[in-house]
Write a structure and sequence with these properties.
The structure holds 2 protein chains of 2 kinds. By secondary structure, chain A is mostly beta strands. Helices cover about 0% and strands about 50% of the residues of chain A. Chain A has strands spanning about 5, 10-15, 20-25, 30-35, 45-50, 55, 65, 75-80, 85-95, 105, 110-115. In chain A, strands 2, 4, 5, 6, 9, 10 and 11 form a 7-stranded mixed β-sheet that branches. In chain A, a hairpin with a 5-residue loop joins strand 4 (about 30-35) and strand 5. In chain B, a hairpin with a 4-residue loop joins strand 8 and strand 9. Chain B starts with a strand and ends with a strand.
Chain lengths: ~120, ~120
């Protein structure tokens, strides 16, 4: 099925470890983004990309890196995991080929990440 | 910076009845979009309804409708004939266009809705 695919669905890390959360979409969407969702809070934007080769920071970028080498993939890297990064992470994509139109975001199913 | 407030952390409604979830936002922008997303226990984020700020007519999608009051910066969601499957977290979201074709989504903290049999 077309959509946004996130892997893994669950992950447990030790403090200081690094890992990459994968996100792929097959809808040829230009815009992709990463959010984290913490209890009692809405989704907060970590990083986003408006196209291949272009990335920018969101509201809470510290401790995370991203790259966008292809339109389809937008991985999120944790360089040195910290307990404060325990959260549920969502990847999303949307199209903005028509700048006068808006497009809702399509979300992946999320990755639950625990840092011990 | 934009902010989105949902003042009702939790709500409940009897099956088949109507419930209204509130959302207010703060922005200096004139051209923006508003959304309601639903997140059931499966954690998937599902778009429920959307509204363009330049449209005065309130959006409607089957049992879901909004009351958009631009001057008051209010965007409430009404669910009619509530069903058990409506049980979920509901997030209000604000989006404005960025200069570089980027999008700036800001989400509220969510309202947990329980539909009771």
């Amino acid at each position: 099925n077309a959509g946004v695919t996130q892997t893994p669905k669950f992950q447990v890390l030790k403090t200081g470890q690094s890992m990459t959360l994968q996100c792929a979409q097959d809808m040829n969407h230009e815009y992709m983004s990463w959010y984290r969702q913490d209890p009692g809070m809405g989704l907060r934007l970590i990083h986003y990309s408006v196209g291949a080769g272009i990335t920018d920071q969101g509201e809470v970028p510290n401790g995370y890196n991203v790259s966008r080498s292809t339109t389809e993939d937008f991985p999120l890297r944790l360089l040195s995991a910290a307990p404060s990064q325990t959260s549920v992470y969502f990847c999303a994509s949307s199209s903005h080929y028509d700048r006068l139109a808006y497009q809702p975001q399509h979300f992946g199913d999320g990755t639950r990440l625990s840092i011990l | 910076a934009q902010t989105v407030t949902q003042s009702q952390p939790e709500m409940s409604v009897q099956e088949a009845e109507t419930v209204t979830l509130s959302c207010t936002y703060d922005t200096s922008e004139n051209n923006y979009y508003l959304f309601w997303y639903k997140q059931p226990p499966s954690r998937q984020m599902i778009l429920v309804i959307r509204q363009e700020a330049y449209k005065q007519q309130n959006a409607t999608e089957n049992r879901f409708s909004v009351n958009f009051q631009k001057a008051a910066k209010s965007f409430s969601l009404k669910i009619s004939d509530s069903q058990l499957g409506d049980t979920a977290m509901y997030f209000c979201a604000f989006m404005k266009r960025e200069k570089n074709y980027g999008q700036n989504f800001v989400f509220g903290p969510g309202t947990r809705l329980s539909v009771l049999p």
